[in-house]
Amino acid sequence: MSDASWHHDTLYTNGIKLHYVTQGEGPLMLLLHGFPEFWYSWRHQIPEFATDHKVVALDLRGYNDSDKPEAQSAYVMAEFINDVKGVIEGLGYDRCILVGHDWGGAIAWSFAYAHPELVERLIVLNLPHPAKFSEGLRTPQQILKSWYIAFFQLPLLPELLFQFDDFSLLEQAFRGMAIDQSAFTDADIEAYKNAFAKRGALTGAINYYRNLFAQFSVERSWGILTIPTLMIWGEADTALGKELTYGTEKYVQDFRIRYIPNCSHWVQQEQPQLVNQFMREFLE
């Protein structure tokens, strides 16, 4: 699925080249994807919000057509935050509506704390507040759900497993977790496979996880975020428990949450109309 009015472009910031897809004009809406995705996971949101925004769907560092630094140390939150700051400023804006899913959600939360002056509104899909995620990783039920994080610490083996049998694991990740498997067409699956077949993309993406424990071992106190925030949560997420959303209002002054039943982790791809509706209501 692609649209003739979508424009592919690149921007140099923080020492690397970042690729993005953009459509529309107006206030900036910056979309940050998760794992194992790329800008394409926002294909249902780009045309919807391009009617009154400049929508920019980024390929995060290490993914698809963005640069893929070789050093594992290049995949830490401080670098991701600098990338996002550089993109906003490089596009000529002084603030944005920041939208993130999964890893993009983790970056969005951290960015909002680091640079609240650059975020007008925050929308996070199926990724808990960092304080709640940190709590969750100490519970047996979430540790079981996050088993893959431990597996990703191994060198090379995760990459080999993903490449095996024409990246069949990618198809299993999307269709296997989805409640509505028809949300992912054969062409969608091919797009994801092609993105991860690019040299260095698998290692870049997995390196996000290889630095995770070092970052979570540093205890920090999270203050109260004053940016209006919407969380959208597919309730049938097998990777992240719904209980991780409870108590988020302790950390966010102006907080709204919309749950979507019978919907997986891939919320904006599986229930795009509802996600778009909830986003639109929040923005209006």
From TrEMBL:
GO terms for MF: hydrolase activity
InterPro entries, per the entry: AB_hydrolase_1, AB_hydrolase_fold, Epox_hydrolase-like
Biological source species: Stenomitos frigidus ULC18
Domain of life the protein comes from: Bacteria
Keyword Chaperone listed: no
Annotated protein name in UniProt: Epoxide hydrolase
Claim: NAD is one of the keywords in the record: no
Pfam family, one: Abhydrolase_1
